Every structure is written in C-alpha cells, then in structure tokens.
C-alpha cells in the first residue's frame, strides 16, 4: 500500500488543483466588468516658476504649481475581486524637446470598505511638476487625466482611464512670489 506521506501528498495536490481551478473561474466572473466611470476635474490656481533644479544639473527649469478640484464616485468599482484602487492624476503635454510628457501630480490608495466618493476642492499636488527645460511657460494645452489601477484578489491588473479630462494653460510670465 501507499505510505501516509504519499496519501497526504496526493490529497494536498488534488486540493490545490481544485483551488486553482476555482480561483480561475472566479477571475473569469469579473473579466467583462466595465471599470470606467466619469470624473470631473478643474484647475483653480496655475502658476509657473523658473528655478534651478539642484537634483540634476543645476540648470534653470520650469516648475509648475497648481491646485485642482476633483469629483468622482468610485464606490461601484468595488466587487468581490477588488482589494484596492490605486488612483493617480497625470498631466500630459507636448514640448519641442519631447513628443509626449507625462507627469504624475497626485495619487491615492483606496482600500475596500473605505469611502470611495471623492470630492476634493482646491487640492495641492502631491508631487512636483518639473519640466526638463522651459516648456511650461505659456504652454497652451496641458491635459489632466485621472487613472487607476485595480488591485484584484485574482486576475489581471487593469489600468483604467476615467471618462473626462481637463485642459488648462500655463501663464505666459513667470511668477516671482512664493507659492
């Protein structure tokens, strides 16, 4: 006959195979869910300064400062397969030096069970808005986009972009005041 270890190994292998199949079936149950939703964004205050970048080469680069409003309801995105959402607000723009610039300005993690109704007014950015040159002053088309990653219990890690963007302009003059 078989030893106790052989029988235990067979039972454990069978159990893990069944659990893997069930996990895959559970993943398939949320594969076609549409995780997009509308988001309203607005810029309140937009200024640009020309300051030395001591982290790189000490050249003077543009540094943008802005405050923004954000309103969206993400509570319907949570189902049994969503552990958390990783939200981030990006600014996209084109300069002569770079065809596409994307800068993450703000992020937030929302766990399951937390309040997913966002209504922020006059929020400061969490990260600096550096340009690798002087491409922000007088720029006419900078687009804010809210995106999120869904962290599931099982399955893919989708990257979703919100429905709705906001475009704004930077001023044509540098500010000299403290921001």
Question: Overview of this structure, please?
Answer:
Belongs to the SPCS3 family. 15% of the residues lie in helices and 46% in strands. The chain has one helix at 4-29, and strands at residues 39-52, 60-73, 82-93, 101-111, 117-124, 129-130, 142-152, 159-168. The protein is mainly beta. It is built from 1 helix and 8 strands; from the N terminus they run αββββββββ. It is elongated. It has 2 domains: 1-32; 34-168, Immunoglobulin-like (Sandwich), CATH 2.60.40. Strands 1, 2, 5 and 6 form a 4-stranded antiparallel beta sheet that branches.
Name the descriptors.
endoplasmic reticulum, SPC3, 1 helix, 179 residues, 8 strands, 2 domains, four-stranded antiparallel β-sheet, elongated, Signal peptidase complex subunit 3, transmembrane helix, signal-anchor, mainly beta
Termini separation: 80 Å
Question: Would you report the number of β strands?
Answer: 8
Helical stretch tally: 1
Helix-strand pattern: HEEEEEEEE
Largest sheet: 4 strands, antiparallel
The CATH class of the largest domain, by name, is Mainly Beta
Radius of gyration: 23 Å
Tally of discrete structural domains: 2
Structure classification: mainly beta
User: Share of helix among residues?
Assistant: 10-25%
Corresponding CATH architecture of the largest domain: Sandwich
Mean pLDDT: 91
Our estimate of the beta-strand percent is over 45%
- CATH fold topology of the largest domain: Immunoglobulin-like
Indicate the overall shape: elongated
Instruction: Enumerate the spans where pLDDT stays under 50 for 5 or more consecutive residues.
Output: none
């Amino acid at each position: 006959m078989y030893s106790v270890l052989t029988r235990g190994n067979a039972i454990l292998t069978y159990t893990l195979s069944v659990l893997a199949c069930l996990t895959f079936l559970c993943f398939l149950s949320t594969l076609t869910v549409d995780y997009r939703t509308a988001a309203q964004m607005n810029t309140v205050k937009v200024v640009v300064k020309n300051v030395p970048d001591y982290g790189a080469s000490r050249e003077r680069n543009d540094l943008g400062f802005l405050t923004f409003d954000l309103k969206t309801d993400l509570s319907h995105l949570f189902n049994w397969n969503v552990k958390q959402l990783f939200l981030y607000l990006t600014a996209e723009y084109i300069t002569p030096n770079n065809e596409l610039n994307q800068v993450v300005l703000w992020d937030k993690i929302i766990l399951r069970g937390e309040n997913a109704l966002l209504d922020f007014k006059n929020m400061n950015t969490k990260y600096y808005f550096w340009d690798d040159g002087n491409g922000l002053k007088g720029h006419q088309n900078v687009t804010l986009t809210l995106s999120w990653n869904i962290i599931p219990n099982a399955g893919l890690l989708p990257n979703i972009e919100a429905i709705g963007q906001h475009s704004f302009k930077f001023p044509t003059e540098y500010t000299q005041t403290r921001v």
